[in-house]
Each structure stands twice: as C-alpha cells, then as structure tokens.
Amino acid sequence: MVRVLCGDGQSPPAEYPGDVDIRRLIADPSNVLWVDICDPEDENGVHPEALRILRDVFEFHPLAIEDALIESHVPKVDDWGSYLYIVLHAVHFERGKEQLETRELDLFVGPNYLVTYRTEAVRALEQQWRITQRDARHTRRGVDYLLYELCDAIATDYLPVMDAMDEAVDLLQDEVFERTDAHLVERIFRLKRAVLDLRRVLSPQREVLNKLSRGDFAVIDNKDRVYFRDVYDHFVRLVDLNESLRDVVSGVLDTYLSVAANRTNAIMKTLTIVSLMFLPLTFITGFFGMNFFGGSIELTFETNHWLFFLASMLLMIGMPLAMLLYIRRRGWW
C-alpha cells in the first residue's frame, strides 16, 4: 500500500493514491510531500512496490535502499548529502504475555519530502497521518518540522508501553508472596527480557535524536533543532524509567527466589521435626525387636504382661509429645 500526502501550507494537505506522479509533486518547491509505504514482503522475500518507489522515483542510493528493505537495523541516522536516512523503532507490549514487539520504521528525509517505509502497522504513524491531514500548519513549517512531529509521536507512544510494563511488575510483586511455581518465574523472566529488549531500542534511538538536535544536516533548519532536542529529552527520561524498571524487575526476581527458599526451608523444617519425633519410637521398637540370643523376649509373669505393654505405649506416645512441646517452647516450629 502506497499513499501520498501533499500540502503547500495554505490549505489542509490532500491525500493521493500511490499511482500519482510523485516527481511532479516534488518538483514544486512549495509542496511538502509525505509518502507512506507499507509493503510486506512477497513469497520470494522481495518488496516490489517499495523497491520501485525508492529506486525508480526517488533514486536513493542502493546501499540506503538495501538497509531499508532489510529489517534488522538498530536506530541510526545516515547523512547522504541531499537527504537523510533514519531508522526508528516503535514498540508494542502485549499484556498478559509480557512480550515486547519492536516495529522498524525507515525514513528518508529530503528538502521537501518525507518517505516512510514499514512492513506492518505503526500506531504512532497512523495517528500522526490523521493529525497532519486535518490542518495546514503541519506542512507550513517544512518537512523537518513534520519529521519532528512524527518522532515526537513515536516517543509519546512509548509511555503507554512503559505504564503497561510497570503494571505487570506490580502484579508480579503481589503474586510472588501468594504462590511460587514455574509459571510465575517464567513470567518474571519474560518481563525481564522485555525490559532488556526495550533498553536495546531506547539507547540508540536516544542517540539518533541527539544527532538530529546537534548535527549539521542540510535538510534540517537550525531553528528547528530545538524541537528535536525536546524529543531527545523525552528519550532521556524514557531511558531513566527503563533503568528503574529493570532494577524493580531484578528485585522481583530476588524476592521470588528468597520466598521460594524460605518456603523450602519451612518444608524441610517440618519434615525434620516429624522425623525427629519418630526417632525414639524407632529406637524402642528396634531395641526390643532384636533377637541375638534366641527368640523375642517373652514375659513369664501374666500379671506384668499388660503393665509392660501399657508402659511401653505411654513411653512411645509421651516422648514425641514431650519433644514437640520442647520444640514449640524454643520457637523452632
């Protein structure tokens, strides 16, 4: 899918289909053009529509086109003289699954055009596209200001993800004290991996905005660099939040291990006490059951038979009870 948004700053931008003559629109320097390409790869792993526009219409460098069509890059910015090639990442967090999904967005920024390429939906881009359509002010200030608004929308879209991850951490903190099982520790490790994946995206993306706010690029006006510095501050704050979230997740894991160890110790303590209570019983029955010198001991006096039996039973019952009372008084159980 290819769509084109073109505005001259005087009236709201008009949307054109993908088969419009893009070269004619770019030729007018008063126009600000936004070309959005969403082109999933075909069965041969090729992006035919994106390749046609990037190579034949805009005539970008083959290396830049190759970078855009290969979806495996960290956020970066390359200066090709008359245009910039920028890689940004949007994120999506699935609640309940504790999984972070990154969606790459490739941008080509020229004197009066912005080309965005992606293989799947990016929520921040869709929102900014609708906002730009409604008002001429978004194209009046030039393509670099339009780039700023898109970067700001992507940075703003990180905040719900951070809130969702923070809520997931709070739920795990409550569940740690209620139960310990393999499913819970698996969720903790999934969330920890999501936080680390987010850190791998945020740090280089922060540096991209730092370069846009301080670098000397021909397509970015000096007076508009302050806007990119504002987005850079957003990413600095997001990096700090991510570091705090990583520490909290590590604390949840440590708490889980501590709670699991305490419960294991409690179980072992109970088993040890039960074994200790049966130890004198085992000694008594084993001692009187030995027959080194013939058969088992037999009582010859009828009157003492039941008396000896009752005394043995009282001893076997009383000793565990006395041991249990002693353990309770010492606070061992």
Automatic annotation (TrEMBL):
Q: Where would you find this protein in the cell?
A: Cell membrane; Membrane
Give the protein name, as stated in the record: Magnesium transport protein CorA
Q: What function does this protein fulfil? A: Mediates influx of magnesium ions.
Per the record, what is one GO cellular component?
plasma membrane
Instruction: List the molecular function annotations (GO) for this entry.
Output: cobalt ion binding; cobalt ion transmembrane transporter activity; magnesium ion binding; magnesium ion transmembrane transporter activity
Q: Which UniProt keywords apply?
A: Cell membrane, Ion transport, Magnesium, Membrane, Transmembrane, Transmembrane helix, Transport
Source organism of this protein record: Candidatus Thermofonsia Clade 3 bacterium
Q: Write down the Pfam families for this protein, in alphabetical order.
A: CorA
Provide the membrane topology annotation: Multi-pass membrane protein
Query: Where does it primarily localize?
Result: membrane
Instruction: Please indicate if the UniProt record lists GTP-binding as a keyword.
Output: no
Q: Does the keyword Ion transport apply?
A: yes
